């Protein structure tokens, strides 16, 4: 009997030692995985996907759908397949630790390993690695070519090899160094090399390649005897620094390579600079801009070059062209674009820049911003947009059949210009907010007037004036669909007849946001798709899809047959091929589906012309079906699915009933005490139904009592099946971390009443908390609240009106709406008035119309009632909320002797950007809630603080026996 008892005890001990899962800690973040960039080859036989970590080296996987095997490549990035699906091409970056060492200035730039290019032959499985490559390109729609530049390893590189992915897309670097270009035919392995290349471009079909060469600078020679510059060289060097002397560009040459014939032809050459290389769809036409101005000219003058290789026609559009407006010039800041049919070329023109007076002595003149009440935009907006405005250009269009003639179709009064039918239409859409811009200060948006602008004459035809809404053009340009936000109505405008017809007039269903709860007109659910030949448009209501015939010849049809509204499922169409702009009404299509009740996600199928319910293929308690990708030439698909318990993984399928899981991210998650998510439904104190999500630890025991943190913003319950990776967040709640460490986390949905945002938050949050407190496993004395931005405001409001919470964390809050009302959102330069009158703050009136609303909803005016310890995060470079709002809150509570702490992450934004700051705040947030909700020891930063003289030396994380 004793032996049996001993064995049993040992078994129990082993179970608790080895069976219990450990909680997450702050060391896990960097290596936590996610699915990054993914692609499927055009034939659907190969899939590439990247498994990324938060901080470290990624792994690229190449998966063969036929052989069911994968290849792995460490540190690979920018993976792509050739158009014929025969090759995969990607780059290998240096080790993350080395890139970081360069950024931290612990490793010299020239010691950093250069990128390598990898080419995988998907037919034979062979892999080739090419070292010291600076970027690569492959044709988008044809050919099996790759082109790449080779780094010059003889020179010390000052290139930013530690740039983030995508930075090197800035191909028009004016200081690009000449390098060797290699162009390889991947099918036969033959390569051609071209020296001193600074930029290059394939035609989409892979038949042509254009590149620009630059004569390299002559190296200065040293005096052999003295090992230093000779006297003559010093004089020459001194002359070179004379800014009044024109500094010519090096000789540049534009050359075109016929990749099929192997011929190379010179297109243009001069001491100047060529850029903005652009082919037409077939690769038979080329356009680019160039300047022969001096490098140090304050104003450089450009010309447009046009070449037609079929007709051998060339044209240079100069600033003296008869069609050019007076004092206007060709702009280098707009990329030339050919229409898809190649018949029109759109390029940029602009008023001639005015050179800055370099002779002016800065100390003799004031530096001042002058604000004028008649300005279209506030000075803060103007200064924010200054760089863009200085480079602003306007569209002109050249008819390629007659390239010596072009028409200015844009104007300084227009905000934007939209091409129609991939530029094939003989008109464009012009948009202007002129005379309506000042009101954006309090409206948040502007009413706009829309025009048809003729490409050959430049004449304008007004479509609609002063529209609060949106305009979309049908794929072929036969119709314009207008959404009027103030009327909640859609209209169809016939481009040929110039007639406008109402589309949803008389229908009982709403096509605008049914849950919209701001003091403004609700927005539309939007256009889902178009049908072939511009016959009809598919428009969304909250649940279903409707077909409206654009010429008004037939009545509207609910193509999902009311199935969505009946079952609370929201349907939408897919855009799976960017080259296909419309849907065949007779062809089977897939619809994404979201169950608004259960939050399940899935896919259905139907035909536009069908009169029956859509057919369910798959519905799962996951998130991800909306991000579906399709092979261009095959019925093969990939998608990334996730749930709160299942890390994101990539799946491949051909029919959705069977899906093959390709990846296995975060297998180590099973070592940790994770959690579960479930919906909670309740009725508020005022009788309103609401929903929230409750997260519980994986080892949840209903016989225990748990502390709880309530995190909120507006509505978060649709995130029930979203995976929440443990990560240092920008001041939001790290849900997975806290759940793993024995907390309950509750995220309630909130609906608002105009003028009462604070009371609305209290109604929904507090009633949801009271509902959960009815459970014996919720410790009602140990409940904390956390919110960021709008959530931070609501935290401040709650603690100023109730003492039911034991601890609070308020990130970037507004506490005084009267002072914040006139503030500036520095990220955009916009004034904050619109936020209170029309948007998120939901007061619906100006400060002088209803001062009582601003005071009533401002926590500062009842701050003396606060009994809850609170941490505030307000950063001095916050681009959305004036950071002095946090100071107002802190100084008020400090004066009242309330326990309060303020974190200002120097130089960081509204939501923390710098990863080191995100890691820091996660530790402080954990320590704060652990102290007040778990009875843990308090850290030094809470008990004694960190004086300025200790800043950067002591972070105060040490735990003490002292009390705050």
Entry keywords:
seven-stranded antiparallel β-sheet, 964 residues, alpha+beta, disordered N terminus, eight-stranded mixed β-sheet
Number of separate helices: 16
The Cα radius of gyration reads 32 Å
Structural class: alpha+beta
State the total count of DSSP E strands.
56
Average pLDDT reading: 93
Basic shape: globular
> Regions with pLDDT < 50 over 5+ consecutive residues?
1-18, 158-172
Distance between the termini: 54 Å
Percentage of residues assigned to helices: 10-25%
Strand order of the largest sheet: 45-46-48-47-49-50-53-54
- Major sheet size, sense and barrel closure: 8 strands, mixed
Strand content: 25-35%
Account of the 3D structure:
- 15% of the residues lie in helices and 33% in strands.
- It is built from 16 helices and 56 strands.
- The strands form 13 sheets. Strands 45-46-48-47-49-50-53-54 form an eight-stranded mixed beta sheet, with helices on both faces.
- Mean pLDDT is 93; it is low at 1-18 and 158-172.
